[in-house]
Amino acid sequence: xxxxxxxxxxxxxxxxxxxxxxxxxxxxxxxxxxxxxxxxxxxxxxxxxxxxxxxxxxxxxxxxxxxxxxxxxxxxxxxxxxxxxxxxxxxxxxxxxxxxxxxxxxxxxxxxxxxxxxxxxxxxxxxxxxxxxxxxxxxxxxxxxxxxxxxxxxxxxxxxxxxxxxxxxxxxxxxxxxxxxxxxxxxxxxxxxxxxxxxxxxxxxxxxxxxxxxxxxxxxxxxxxxxxxxxxx
Length: 233
Fold this sequence. Notes:
The chain is an alpha/beta fold. Helices cover 39% and strands 20% of the residues.
């Protein structure tokens, strides 16, 4: 601050600048220049992906591991797959498919946030690096560093996994694809001003006669676990 004033030809003592800053409760320059984790997430949202594994058990008694990613800016979710055996080869292939999908969608991602789960192989980072994506690891036992992904995991459990009887891996993947479609194309998100990741907010209805004569249809999915509401044609 003192240096900037000097470049403007304003003569003032450095101690005076310090006293003014202290009186206004402004931190010293080194601290103001630092970037918090929340600041990083907000400033880089357009370039951020986050991923995580979700565990669930199907009715055939097998533990299944679901791998999913979410775009921070759009909140679009991609379910990369589910397996009872998350081997290194399986994860690597899922990541390769993700990279190709991102390229086809024209999505410019620079960072991928993940935790330190041992199911993520080291070779995964090389594949991402080859696509220009840097891996950012969260702290140990610090799920809030991956809060947006963790929030989707919570929604997936509450709205799908805890409400649906899933027979086996094939049925689980089918249910996840249905939930992914509803989440991306229909479900309203408060963070997006009630838009969906792949659907903008429609123009408001201002005609009183149209509002009075609305005909809305509900479409049930997965036996009524998920609902979609739309205007009747």
